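Q: Got a minute? One more chain.
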Amino acid sequence: MDVDFDADRRDLRDYETWAKRAEAAKVAYVPFGGGPYYGYEVGVIDAMHELGIVPDAMLPGCIGDFIGLYYLMALVEGRAPTHYIDAFSKTGLMQEKDYVKAPIPPVFAMRVAQWMRGFAQYYTTPQAYQNLFAPELFPDVMKTGMDYLSNPTDRNLGIFTRSLCVWHPMTRLALGGYFFAPIGPFADLYNPEDPDGWINPPINWTSVYRDAAPVYIMSLLKVGAPEVIQATNCIGHPDFAPVDGRRLASGSNLPWLIAETYIDGSYYRESAVRDAATLTPAALDSLPSLEVCICVQIMDSNDTDMLSINNGNHNNYALQVTEMVATIGDDDIKQAAAYQKAKGRDTEWIVIEAQSDAKPFWTHENVARCRREGYEIAMHKFMTSEKLRPYIKTPPARTPPNPAHAGKRVSVLRQPDTAVQAPAPARGLKAVK
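A: Always. Here it is, folded:
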């Protein structure tokens, strides 16, 4: 069996048993991802647990691959539903006061090693020390400096600073390393030398492949291939690969953020760069009786029209990434809904979106905010869903709260306003009704 864990010592679900469970599945949980916004996914799990809703299938994406698998393990083992997710958060997040000074969360620890190795490799090569001195550029420094002194505009200051940096040997040395050291992408997740311990908490593959486990279908993309492939929690599937640590990591390897994972002679990355990355026709056809899909997405892609001029590099980088991955959820849902309708399947789509007081921060405070809001939105939508009603086993412990953002969508990258008046156009987004 093509997996990175010891399959011979485990009792793993076969395809026939998996297919019976898939064909009977009625409720699916679809955590699309969203990096530091994953608290919304956890809040939805809290709401499902309170109402006694147990999903029959999970169709995750990005960090939702981890959240879904941790949730699955807890269900199978009879633990609190967020037992493993809480442990992941405890070791992988930072306090906000520390994050805003040095935003390197523990979940990306391997990145630090990459930095050190990449810079060391660069500064031990002749390339780093070639052409450090450029005296022919010094006249430009003098000219642009005089231009700034005679006309101190921002543009002239920028031209002078640029000329100084390009000429000075120390900045040439430092910037050469910053831009050209082989430090790779933002992080590595998978460690092939430690296939069982690369993620904390480690994955219990016996639980993942147990007969009683919900059907789990994730997707990943072979680099250079036109279509995504699926991985699932059974052996012997005729079309899907078996899920393991390599494929789990690949499913979260967003290009130029996280390094691709090497599997059997090829590199794989996250499938978010393709439409219909999570709710693929192949996955939906495996679940022909599906009645309700509970989806958690970052936002509607039209909600990301935030101006970058008032943000630091961290939030601007997050803005670019979010604008791209925002389409993971909304496009998938629209295409999947159309596909189900064309197949004559009556599926309800319950969608929980991230809101304005979420931040692109890997912090305990941000995840707690997202979790609280995800719970509130989910409870509100669950209690007003006709199709979901038969699967609610216990009444809510208290009156479901009315979400603060009910009836409107606001970009997660815009700070919530404390005042009632709308912000000026140059300061951020207008609320989307």
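A: Strands lie at 27-31, 57-58, 215-222, 229-232, 241-242, 261-263, 266-269, 292-297, 348-353.
Q: Perfect, thanks.
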